[in-house]
Amino acid sequence: MCRKEFFMLNVKKIIKKISVCCVMAALVTGMPAGCGKKNENSKKTEIIIFAAKSLNGVMDELCKEYNKEHPDINFHTNYDSSGTLMTQIKEGAKCNIFFSAGVEQMDELEKGYDGGSADKDNRKDLLNNQVCLVTWKGSNTKVKSFKDMAKAKNMALADETVPVGQYTRKALINSHLVSGDKEKANDLKDTDISNALGGLEINSCANVGAVAAAVAEGADEIGTVYYSDTFGYEDNLEIIEKLPNSLTGDVIYPVAPLKSDDISDAEFNASNEFVKFMSEEKAVKLFEKYHFSMS
């Protein structure tokens, strides 16, 4: 590589790093902060939580509950698909706690990334969930089970980077609805699924929240979400079937504090204490309220 090419490559890397940092700075200082207000006390410890979209409601409540006895903690939350959040962290976004809807994403961060890693010593495989096939209430769909999904006109499906989309793809293979290797279920594309299900129209969604909304609004006839995502949609969504773990595999939510060059000891210790709190009785009751079960 010539000197000019080397220089340009490093410039691109620096620009990418700056872009990620600017985005996350905007997130922390400008977001409505589902769990905390903008820091008005320099002595407060700032904790940034990246959590799967399906944890949105319960995490907001958990942070508020924790703040009752720990007002010195200022929480900021970022909710999206676990795959998207993992990528943001690996690209330089600051995060103190990662709460994933799949073990694959946590395992990847535990291996380490530039400047940091998920702390395996304090990782907890905390929650269980269940994948559900849903429709909108009043749809009169002919789909009565997962195995006759081909009777639907269209389906909202999280893409192959999103845990619920990955679990669904594995279930399709295990049900023999789609041909493939269950160990490589993430390789299944929307076109593969559509062709196997008689041309079923697939609406590819970026996260499970988008799937739930698309079906609840009647934009798509069916979709796969977690049982926890039906919370708050009782008047809009009808569960056709709860998929057994024999089809999807165990749906486990791991959580861990992160260690990195830009995380202080105080932040790490505070993050670890909050992770421990998630196993306490108050937290367990909140998780159960949102249809999660403890591992």
TrEMBL record:
UniProt cross-references to Pfam families, sorted A to Z? SBP_bac_11
InterPro entries the UniProt entry points to: ModA (IPR005950), ModA/WtpA (IPR050682)
Specify whether Metal-binding is a keyword of the entry: yes
Keywords of the record, alphabetical order, are: Metal-binding, Molybdenum, Signal
Gene Ontology molecular function: metal ion binding; molybdate ion binding
| Annotated positions binding molybdate | 54, 82, 208, 226
- Entry-linked Gene3D superfamilies: Periplasmic binding protein-like II (3.40.190.10)
Q: Does the keyword Signal apply?
A: yes
User: Could you give a single Gene Ontology term from the biological process aspect?
Assistant: molybdate ion transport
**SUPFAM superfamilies annotated for this entry?**
Periplasmic binding protein-like II
List each coiled-coil range. Answer: none
Say which family it is in: Belongs to the bacterial solute-binding protein ModA family.
Write down what this protein is called: Molybdenum ABC transporter substrate-binding protein
